[in-house]
Design goal:
The complex is a heterodimer of chains A (182) and B (588). Chain A has 182 residues and is an alpha+beta fold. In chain A, 14% of the residues lie in helices and 32% in strands. The longest helix of chain B has 36 residues. The chains are: A alpha+beta (182), B mainly alpha (588). The interface between A and B is large, with 73 and 80 residues.
Chain lengths: 182, 588
Amino acid sequence: MEIHRFEKVWVACALLLIVGFIATITYGAVGAGVAMVNDEGGTVDAQNLQDTEFADPGVRQVGANEYEVYVVAQQFIFRPGTNEDIVLPANSEVTFYITSADVVHGFNIVGTNVNSMAIPGQVAKLTVQFDEPREYGIVCHEYCGAAHHEMAGIVRVVPESEFSMADTAASDTTAEEDGGDA
Amino acid sequence: MAFADETPTRTEGETSAALDSEGRLAFVERFPFEARMVRYTFLVSFVALALGGVFGVIQALHRTGIYRGIVSNADYYTVLTGHGVLLVLVFTTFFIAGIFLWAVTSSLDREVASQRVTKLWFYLMLVGTLMASVAIIGGFSDLIPASATVLFTFYAPLQASPIFYIGAALIIVGSWIAGVNYFRTFYGWKQENPDERIPLQTFMVLTTMLMWYIATIGVAIEVVVFLIPWSLGLISEVDPLLTRTLFWFFGHPVVYFWLMPAYLVWYTILPKLSGGRLFSDSLARIVFVLFLLLSTPTGFHHQYVDPGIPEGYKFVAMTNTMFLLLPSLLTAFTVVASMEHGARQRGGTGLFGWLKALPWDNPAFSGCALAGMMFAAAGFSGMVNAGMNLNYLVHNTLWVPGHFHLTVGTAFALTAMAISYWLVPQITGKPLGLRKWASAQPFVWFIGMLLMSNAMHRAGLVGVPRRTAVPQYDQFSYESVFGTYGEMRIQIALGGTILFIALVMFLMVMWDTYMGTRGGRLSVSSRIPEPLSNAEASPQVLDRIWLWAAIAFLLVLLAYGLPLYDFVSDGVFAPGSPAYPAFSWLGL
């Protein structure tokens, strides 16, 4: 087979580009530590969430600056998020556990890379940092029924001095459960 | 559409016979039956395109808030389902089945293996289309006791009526039978020409169909084993993650099922429209083999942010996806090189000056060239989608439809329209009508898509979600770093409207052509010149398509075997979800 010189150069450049892309993504995963949502969250019985760690969703403090947030996505609210804000302190490391009580939903903190699917039966676990006080919107970005466009919520990151667990959505402020790794 | 009263007759020698611009008998004269079947598939395809386009412009105006008086917010999702299904399933599959029938017949210079089977697959696909369409339209009205407002991706546990799933299955089964018929035609030819290389167009059709058979295994299992029995009430629960994974097993390679026919056009017809010939036959074959091998084991890249899937599987899908860039990058080279060769044959000179020598007033050429140009842009936004951790920023935002309106919405759709300007005269024997409208049409489409797609990409970066009737919220407003969200909305609505105008122009040209009189000299030439480096120079092993299919199947087993085993090891239907029927939302 005869391959033209220009073709050979082009193929070499194309392969270099591809290997370069894979390298940057690998660096993002290993070096910068951007972990993917995976199977760590485990599974859950979507029809009996009251018997799981999602019975009382909300914010739980698990360390000095570490928090867990359990969120149930359901037609057409985030619980918490929609009827009450998710309130978190600045400079915190937050692990979200997200699941769905009915159909497939999405969970995206608008304009950020906090982005996950909420699939009935599965628990999405993702850990993020909130550095500055700021208010963020949450949208459901997966079609979930006729009022899908109304499904939204708020994450309110407040200065550490103004934060108290009493203000958070969860009625139970203790964090006895490690939760999620069912 | 009665077949019985249209007995195929050969009209060679008659003075009224349609001839191409170089005096050869047109395709319709040489293969009247095949030409008629291609006309029928194109007819269904263009009707779907027209309806899908109407739905599209309604969406563009609705979601940007320019005009929301046509449908309610709840009905928006029915419109969106219709837009998706009619365009990416019906328009594409019918057009592809038709152009493949033409490509096999004309490149083998041989009648199709079985006329009866050809009618069979056409009617199966047509019945499937009607069933799915009735179910979708049922979403608008209580008069039809069916609904399929579940979008093109039909994720369980949202549930459509059984006729939607059965209709979709029939379209795919029809396409399988069409493929069998292409293979039978090829083997008939092969018996008479045992030592010849597979003609390039036939090679492309066969490799595409092999890829399609492997890819559709996923959706076939999803629909036949799970969704149809579930929608009929035979099983009570399905596993949403498993069915979703089976969908994306099919959902990524399906884009190559759309793209490979566009590549067939770019490789085999575009060079000659440019005034030259294809640069390299071998490279074209290598590209199609690479697509056959790599298209399917990539589906997890649509599930990068799904829970329940280990990161390792996502990483493997990411690397496969990146290597899938290779055949497209090779295509960029070959297509541009072939165009430059053509332009220089036409007297073009200079580093970039040759571009001026190309026949930009020929809509078949300009449409393909503009589609290819937009596909290059789509490649770059696709690299972002494929970039596993970068995907967090864009997943399910408006960026994603911004991307695929460049791929299926332009690389495929504009190429299909462009090549229709060249092919429809040959399958009807009628000269192209409204030539000036036709000449302008690809540019109008290009401008519309430029506005719409670029604004959709940017809106996605701001965080505007896709698949949403009213992407405005009481809770927050979008913060844009570049431009304003208001300006993006106007661009999307304006672009969508311009695209709709381009679509109407295309349909007018097709209608005018169809209403013309048959016979005489056509302005298109059907001749496809030999590549500069022809088939004899290509390694024989490239033609061993079953070997490549076996390797492709093995790669799919490697990529999907373990994950699927994991998902079903806790029970095929577990963790289960009961049905949430789409039609129960009516009246909300």
